[in-house]
Each structure stands twice: as C-alpha cells, then as structure tokens.
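Appendix B. Chain record.
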Amino acid sequence: MGTRFQDQPPDQWAGPESLDPTPVWKQYLLVALLLFAGLVVIVVISLLAVAPQFVRPPALVAGERLVLSPSDAPAVGAPPKRIGAPLVDDAHAFWLTQPAKGDLRALRARWSPSVGSVECEVTTTASNTGAPQLTAPCGDMNAMPTFDLRGDHVMGARRGLDRYLVSVGDDRVIVNLGRLIHSDEKVPAP
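Structure tokens predicted for this chain:
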C-alpha cells in the first residue's frame, strides 16, 4: 500500500454521499439562539442592578436592597431610627444612624456576644450626657453592652454591632441587606 490516494484500492475509497456539504445552517441557528439567550440574561441582570434607581422609596428590590428617602435618615447626632416591619423582616431590621454629616450607618437590630451565638434585641437609650446610645440587654451578660451611634462598643462588650452596607445619593439611600459586615471581636491582651 502506498501513501498516495491513487495507490489505495477502490473499495477503500469514500462514496459520493460523503462529499455532500454539512448542513451548517443548523449550527448557525444554534449559535444565534445561544447569543440571543446570553443577551437576554445580560439585559435581565442589568435591569435588576439598576432597579434601585427606578423605584419610589421606600421599596425593597431584588438583591435584598432597601431603597429609602433621604428624609428617612435621622439628623446628625439625633436618636437612631429603627427600620423594620413591614419593609424588612425581623432578622434584617436595623437602626439607621448618622453620627457625622454624610456618615449614615445601618446597624443591625440584633446582636450577639460572639459570631454565631444566641442573639438579643438592640434597643435605644440615652446616656448620662443625654446623647443617644444603643444597648443589647442580653440575659447572660454581667454588664449591659452599650454601643455608640457608629456601632462601636462603649462598655460591656468585646465586639461592636454588625452593620449593612449603605450607599447615599442625592435622592435616595440604598441599604444592601445582602451584605452584612460583621464587627471584629476585640480580645484583651494577656
């Protein structure tokens, strides 16, 4: 047997049906449908991403984002404002505070002494100086944990309050309830 096609016996030759072109229009149709489906997915994801810009506050949009009006924010140093039902469930309730001009904080309304332990409700109180503070009256603690308007612990706690990511615009405040920022636990030096 040689290496040229003329050297091959005729019974090993391919028949004329093998020379028919492959119907590529089906492949083009499949590629076109996949591209169209990809564009539809991109458009849907894009619309969900910009949804907070189109709704009227207050509203909870896809992606666990709560849209509030700037008038819902408390004044600088004023007592915190609790945001809960009916806008969000009890597990996502938070205290909206403004410790400094333009510094809005969404502090979670539930606190635990360590991450993963039993949580207790956070309430608002006034300090000896009259400034508003947040407290977490947990039953098993000796001292009542107290927090400032930034969510940092003042006394009786090793960690501050967990908080949500907040975005402030001219006409809306967006709180990302899907992005919980855990407070670090402070361990005393030996």
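Further analysis of this model is presented in Appendix C.
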